[in-house]
Amino acid sequence: APASSSVGTPFRFLSVFKWELRKGWDALLRAYFAEFDPTEPVELVLKTRPFHSSADFDGLIAQFASKHALPTRRAAVRVIDSELPLRDLPRLYALADAFVLPSRGEGWGRPHVEAMAMAVPVIATNWSGPTAYLDEEVGYPLDYTLEPVAAELNLQGHNWAEPSVTHLRALMRHVVTNPDEARARGRAARERMLTRFSPDALAEDVLRAIGTSTTRRKNK
User: Fold this and answer.
1) For 61-109, how does the pLDDT look when each residue is reduced to its tens digit (9 = 90+)?
2) Cα–Cα distance between 114 and 101 in angstroms, integer?
3) Is the whole model's pTM more than 0.85, yes or no?
4) Residue 206: is it exposed, middle or buried by C-beta count within 10 angstroms (0-12/13-18/19+)?
5) At what angle do helices 57-67 and 25-35 cross, to 10 degrees?
């Protein structure tokens, strides 16, 4: 996609995922391309890798846009498909103004909490793992409906979250037009990670659980 023609640093969305339907990359592209045009100072950075898919991500994006009749001239997208050492990940998150991942299901969501630990506001589907730590005080929960898993995945009888593209467009526009609020939620997200989900905080939780279990056994 062509780069933004606007002068200055763009508002940068970051998404980190493997290229599979569960991660909602299709919903993300539909929302982003529909909401922003190439004259706006925005950029979507995709840190991804193939997962039973082609590694030609520019081609996959162009093919997807053509199939869904999305604009020929599109807002800027940059793909990072090289492996990054763990020590370089903080620099990647530090470049982002917002993290966005409209996935259809997560066990936990490591990129979500990595972004939050770096004080980056997160837009993510309000279902499964992220509901343990993401709310409107620290980020932007995304509406969804529960629907059957895509037939090609052969998981008949299972449901997953179908993210609302309309709401995703609204949230992405909102953080662009309200950057101070977004930064404030990002700072609150970092504080939550430090106080409730840091290694020290989790160790204290484990010790309390062990102590409670020991006390119960003694009282039997």
Assistant:
1) 999 999 998 888 999 999 999 989 989 999 999 999 999 999 999 999 9
2) 13
3) yes
4) exposed
5) 70
